[in-house]
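Field reference: sequence -> structure
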Amino acid sequence: MTLYDENGFLGAKLDDWIVQHRESHRAILTLALELNRECHRFIDGRSVDLSDTNQLTNAALFARLMELYQSVLLTVDRGMRAPTRILFRAFLECFFHFAAIHNDPEYLEVYLDQVEVQRKKLVNRIRRTTDPGLENLRQPIGPELIQEIGDIDVSGISIAEVATRAGWHSVYVTVYELLSRSVHSNAGDIEAHLECDRAGREIISLRYGPTDAETARTIGLAGMTMADALNDIARDFSEDLSEQCTKLKRSFESLLMDAGASKTS
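Structure field:
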């Protein structure tokens, strides 16, 4: 029996699956929503010093983290495996930048300089293409703009280096790299849509529809990470939320361990 109808992941029959899913993972989903509320309580009415580049950048990144965290919760709620993994990767990448700024005093300037790096890449990419459809974009790129971007002497930085500066390189080479397979629709990740026999030797059907395979792990890891971010942003505003954040993080760790134990038992 399929768990969806002609609406797919957008409702109707899936709504029954969502109700059952929320009940099955009530503890960790409830905790995730509690953390979300704590984050919103912190930013509600928050005054950011626009002249403080560090505080302003961190506040903007934290807002992005909150949005991505909630998007992960929304896709998990509907059992959408690939979108959940893709959004979780984007969440981690944002967190790497956020953590690097807190861990490495010199990284803020490097991070902000990447705007010029991307601008230079975009202009060069457009002016070097021979695609007739992009002629209207090539025409405004004259000698002055070419000279201007040529004078940009800023180096790009890889996400691997950002994660290292953040002190999260181990997460980059494990969780982040695995999630990248979903982002690029690698053949190995597409296997998730194939149903095999018990021996794992023959493909017996295609698999499509909601799954809770990503629920505990994704929500647990995202929650632990978001709790760290909340703790850091609070310090940026000279507030101490360490007790609440530590409690939340430990609760996520405990639920994540329980979920792992239940799978192996």
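Note: The chain has a mean pLDDT of 91.
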